[in-house]
Amino acid sequence: TVSQDDAFFVKKDTIPPVITDGQDGDDIWRGSSGTTYNVDFTDNLSYLDTAEYTIWTSTGQQWTQAKDWTPIFTSTNVASYNVDWTIDFDSCKSSFNYVSVRAWDMAGSTSTIEDMFYIKKDTTPPTVNNGESGGDDAWRRASGTTYNIDFSDDLSLLDYAQYTVYSGPQESGSQIIGWTNIFSSLSAETY
């Protein structure tokens, strides 16, 4: 009879990966892609397998799913992943977008964090409503005439508006008055 000590061993990992939130909500209204986000992943036992993100238009993964679960990384078999990553900005809706993340380790344990951070998207320009039907045909000697032009932006809010004056229609002829602020640093929906 032959006996052998430690003929085999069993690796056991019941601890899920750790997801570290280094990313607050993105309070800057974004009009284009390219922003990277700081969420890190760690698993020192069986190592990391995969991490994914999803985007919803409301907290708690409610209303509309703007982006289905999408890989951040796959099959890494490393203890940590700390590379900042981007999201599919084109999938985001105009308004708030809530990003949730999940990760698996090589043993199959999973961690999920809903609404880890949010992204504010606004790719719609402000609305300008010209209340001056036909323009101003009266000859003027002095400034001071008031015109009915309204501005609105209900997402990222209005910042500033400007006007310019040319001697001809559609900015033709000579520029008489360069771009001049009507208002600035407004931070309001309407003006």
Please explain how this structure is put together.
With 191 residues, the chain is mainly beta. The protein is built from no helices and 12 strands. The model has no long low-confidence stretch (mean pLDDT 94).
Helix fraction by DSSP (H/I, runs of at least 4) = under 10%
User: What is the terminal separation in angstroms?
Assistant: 94 Å
How do the SSEs run, as a string of H and E? EEEEEEEEEEEE
Outline the biggest β-sheet. 5 strands, mixed
Write a concise keyword list for the protein shown above.
191 residues; mainly beta; five-stranded mixed beta sheet; 0% helix
Brief characterization of the structure:
By secondary structure, the protein is an all-beta fold. It has no helices and 12 strands.
Q: What is the topology?
A:
Layout: E1 18-21, E2 26-30, E3 39-42, E4 48-58, E5 62-73, E6 80-81, E7 95-105, E8 110-121, E9 127-130, E10 149-152, E11 161-168, E12 172-183
Parallel strand pairs: 2-8
Antiparallel strand pairs: 1-3, 3-6, 4-5, 4-7, 7-8, 9-10, 11-12
